[in-house]
Amino acid sequence: MIALRGTGILLTLAALIFLGLLSVWVGTRGIPFSATWHLLWHPDGSEAAIIIHDYRIPRTILGLLVGVALGLSGALMQSLTRNPLADPGLLGVSLGASSGVVVAIAFLGVGSVLGYVWFAFLGAALASVLVYVLGSFGRSLATPDRLVVAGAAVTAVLFALNYAVLLLNPLAFNQFRFWTAGALAGRNMDVVLIVLPFVVVGMLLALGLAPALNALAMGDQMGRALGVNVSRSRALGLLAVILLCGAATAAAGPIGFVGLVVPHVARFVVGADQRLVIAYSMLFAPVLLLGADVLGRVAGAPGEIEVGIVTAVLGAPLFIALCRRRKLVML
Hints:
The protein is an all-alpha fold. It has 13 helices and no strands. The model has no long low-confidence stretch (mean pLDDT 84).
């Protein structure tokens, strides 16, 4: 079994490398693979080299980071809430990021992707903190059920406020609709460098929490009996979700189904051990995202289809197939 799991990781890494190279090669401007490979290691300042190094490589790296972030945050959300239908947007992270972008566009005149990132991340963080405060209001702890209810309430309010502002401001709506589709195109290395620290810290938190999540999957009382500090583990897990999903949404816009579907695929492959689920989710998600991005470029040629649309088209039937093959349980 250990050998099979190791083989699975190696095969997934190989697929990730292949899709990374494919992402650097495929685009609206046709560049032969031999030339792409040469310019990848020996840039000569030509137009093709600029396209590869200034546009496609940052896009591929960002796809890798966003995929890792969405996969990990989805696995954490489903484990922390013990809800197999949970996704990173359940705590208001995605709508919070959208609210930050709406404010930046409608009231501050921000018009660049680089400008959106900071406002989106701030909105995601504030919305998540608000959900946690509401979920822990009173004498009770922030239980999974209370957090889900608080997240649904905050999400509904933010959704209404966002579209009230956008309907009253057609120019803001016109800019916002391109961001909200979810895309990796148009992001340069500056965006990558902004989100990289947040993704790394969130990834380290997620990996460090994996053993505690196995205990919490059996319930809070059993977790305490096994020596887990439930409140601390849940707070750190929520912090990791904020960092991961907030960074991913800020950089690429809201991308659906990745955080929902990938943890189920991981559990289907390796079982319920959260250490393995988190490790495989961290690998499967960028494979799905980069594959969807490449598919969007090929299917939409000579233009392209945004990756958020492609993941929705691919993710929905995949999730339905998983639901039909097995019950959606956490253990």
